[in-house]
Amino acid sequence: MKRSVMVVVGVCFILFCGTQAHAWFGKKKDSGDQQAQQQDQQQASKPAASPAKKEQPKKLDKDAQAKLDAKKQLVEKKRKELDDTEWQIELTPLSGKGKKEGETVVFKGNQVSLTGYGKKGFLPTNFTLTVQEDGSAVWETMQTSEKSGIAFWRGEMADAQTMRGIFSYHPDEKTTVDYSFISTAKKSTAGK
Question: For residue 43, what pLDDT is reported?
Answer without folding.
Answer: 58
